[in-house]
Automatic annotation (TrEMBL):
Biological source species: Adhaeribacter swui
Protein name (database record): Uncharacterized protein
Length: 133
């Protein structure tokens, strides 16, 4: 997403492996029109994945489109009054926008993504705090 994420710059010093723990299984029923899966680590089978797998974890099916963590982050930051706000343009963005407008799924999805991300970064935070003491 960002070309040089701050976490990677800081972690060059500590060289910690960062794992994202969550419930990443995604099993919508056949022919389902809507399926949303929270990835928070207290729901379902918990697994550890690295950043690429985390970003590619599917969390929403809406009509013919499946959205993953990265899609939700990009949609939230680029379309829903995020840092780089602009209007929805593609069919996928417009489809997601129609669902989010009705269900508040953006808040629920981003909350779950933040919980998993903050838990993943806790070991790095503790290492940094050790150095500051």
């Amino acid at each position: 997403m960002d070309k040089h994420p701050l976490v990677h710059i800081v972690n060059r010093i500590y060289k910690l492996r960062i794992y994202f723990e969550g419930s990443f299984e995604f099993n919508p029923r056949p022919n389902a029109l809507l399926y949303w899966k929270s990835i928070e680590p207290f729901r379902g089978m918990i697994t550890k994945v690295e950043l690429p797998q985390f970003l590619k974890s599917n969390i929403l099916l809406f009509y013919d489109h499946i959205y993953n963590v990265q899609d939700i982050i990009q949609y939230t930051s680029h379309i829903t009054c995020g840092v780089h706000s602009q209007p929805a343009k593609t069919e996928r963005e417009l489809n997601l926008q129609s669902w989010i407008a009705d269900a508040g799924i953006s808040y629920m999805s981003i909350r779950a993504i933040c919980v998993v991300s903050l838990n993943a970064l806790l070991p790095l935070e503790l290492e940094i705090k050790k150095d500051l003491q």
